[in-house]
Amino acid sequence: MKRSLIPVAALATILTVTACGSGGTGEQGPEYTGDTFDWKRYSGQSVKVYVADTGQVESLRAGLPGFQELTGITVDIEAADVTSYRQNLPVRLTSRAADFDVMATFPEVDGPQFAKNGWYTNLDPYLSNPGVTNPEYDIDDFRPGVRKAMTVEDQTVTVLWEMQTDLVYYRKDLLEQANIPVPTTFAEWDAAAAKIHDPGNRLYGFALRGIPYQTTTPFSSFLYAHCGQWVKDGKAAINTPEALKAYEVYGQLGKKYGPPGIAGFDWPVPSQQFAQGNVFAFLDVNLFVKDLEDPSKSKVAGKVGYTSVPRGDCDPAPFIGGWGYGINPFSEKRDAAWYFIQWATSKQMNTDLKKTGWPSPRASAWESPEFTGNDKTPEFSKVVLESTQNARAQMNPPVAPGVEAREIAGTVANKGLEGQTGDALKATADQQNGKLQGLLDAMR
User: Fold this and answer.
1) How does pLDDT run across 16-62, given as a tens digit for each residue?
2) Bridge-partner residues for 282, per DSSP?
3) Is residue 149 included in any domain, yes or no?
4) Segment Disordered: which positions (predicted)?
């Protein structure tokens, strides 16, 4: 499979623009300062929504006629794949582009860079203004862990449309045929994959992401379970013994049991291979259940098992985070943009999405009788909700720029998938650790 790495020129642009912002978040508050909320206040306006598509855009577009009827606001959605979006958004913000009003942001990745450059609008003044926030919106319906994932430097900069956390997807039928209980440690998953791995019949034991900057998402669970950290005591720590062990486990699990070309896998590919019946298990985010359980899209629908990320030398620690909607600080229609965000992240929209299997960030969506009475994957729901109890809001190095930090740390995992072990892998980790430390030093 062809590797779709971030082009060097594009990455260089992303790095260069970080010095061009004004710092802080956009301090402009809502234009309307009264205390009476009116859905029709901005009737006749139009807003442009620029987002990364993680699977939500189809449902979003389907609901737009209802939003227009409710508010009188028309919406144009510009959606891009995640890789393209991450490359292009910083460039557009650097030019102070005002041709879009709502933007997608993943604070855990974007936070340090975007806050430094003034690329966020602080949403707290909107949330606290009864004139522009529907009294039924209920921000407290987003639980504390989710709220934390919406903030940067103690300011709310986004409202999540999804609640990502890691878990393991596996084939229940293959595990039963092999007479193996559901593994709970990385060593047990290695043993199970070894027993079921059958490349002669195009059945592979385990799949993982391979593109460097994409690997940090699943790798974070390997790192924490092996007692490692991205940064320790203010210093880059991806070459410590704990981190190296995690990289070894990640690389060997994928190298020994992964499909051909695994080192070039972009983020959706493990789930796609699994849906085709080519993979026994994979570890990744909780965004794939809808398609995996759809018989028209998946050959393994009805055969999928779900379980929490494994233990290593330390307890399991999945992450919690996700993409959300923010307001472009250079937009001239920020209040209308906020109306769209409220609607798109409302209780009803979240409940409707939850019924399709979407990992909603709202507690009410998971608890609603509409969902619980018809939950077709209760095992998945249980795993996700349990995972949020011990999750960490840190799936990437807390270093700016986020994309380059991910590329640096993920390169070690990528080399592990290509077959590096021992001293060779340590040399790569040492080299990349020096680069990560350089970014840390530049932040000071």
Assistant:
1) 333 334 445 556 789 998 899 999 999 999 999 999 998 899 999 99
2) 169, 207
3) yes
4) 352-377
Integer CA distances (angstroms), 318 to 58, 205, 261, 308, 369, in order: 28, 21, 26, 8, 27
In a domain, 30, yes or no: no
296 and 414 belong to one structural domain: yes
**DSSP β-ladder status, 235-236 and 231-232:** antiparallel
Structure tokens at 44: 């006749």
CB atoms inside a 10 Å sphere around CB 216: 26
Tokens read off for 130:
């009864």
Residues 265, 1: contact at Cβ < 8 Å? yes
Residue 421 CB partners (closer than 8 Å, separation 6+) = 248, 251, 252
Tokens at residue 331, please?
């937009």
Within-domain flag for 207: yes
Same domain (yes/no): 339, 205: no
Classify burial at 179, counting beta carbons within 10 Å of its beta carbon; exposed 0-12, middle 13-18, buried 19 or more.
exposed
Q: Which residue has the higher pLDDT, 8 or 166?
A: 166
For residue 438, count other CB atoms closer than 10 A to its CB.
14
- Are 223 and 92 in a shared domain? no
Closest CA to 18 of 101, 124, 89, 77: 89
| Six-digit token string for 159 | 């409202």
What residues make up the domain containing 404?
166-319+396-443
